[in-house]
Amino acid sequence: MKKTPLLNIALSRLIASLGHGDRVVIADAGLPVPPGVELIDLALTQGIPDFVSTLQVVLSEMQVESHVLAEEILLKQPPALQVIDELTARAALGERKLLSHEAFKTLTRQARAVVRTGECQPYCNIVLVAGVTF
């Protein structure tokens, strides 16, 4: 049995297969998933699992070089933003890039996968760019 917190087989497989620069999206329940992009749907009901818990578990296994947020998250200030800011300050998320929400959705077409959560707060979406551990 695994020693890390991540138990979801599809998500663990995805992270193990990432190369430098690959993108993974952690999304709220409403973000559209582009055709051809793998969907790992964790959503059970509103708020379960939440964005922050999902992000923290993914970070337990994934090396992140940088991340992308929609500019609108800064305007709406959902509770998850405080955690994202704290993780950024601790260098767990690398450098931040901001895009309009429309440009963010376009960027998701380049993702290896979208991980859908049950989060229902607006703009709780992040693109994680894989880094290397060496």
From TrEMBL:
SUPFAM superfamilies annotated for this entry? Answer: RbsD-like
Query: Which residue positions are annotated as catalytic?
Result: 20
Q: Name one Pfam family in it.
A: RbsD_FucU
A GO molecular function term, named singly, is: intramolecular lyase activity
Keyword Transmembrane set for record: no
Q: Name one GO cellular component term.
A: cytosol
Q: Does the keyword Cytoplasm apply?
A: yes
Q: Which reaction does it catalyse?
A: beta-D-ribopyranose = beta-D-ribofuranose
List the HAMAP family hit by this protein, alphabetically.
D_rib_pyranase
Q: Family membership, please give it.
A: Belongs to the RbsD / FucU family. RbsD subfamily.
What is the protein name given in its UniProt record?
Answer: D-ribose pyranase
What organism, scientifically named, is this protein from?
Pseudomonas fluorescens
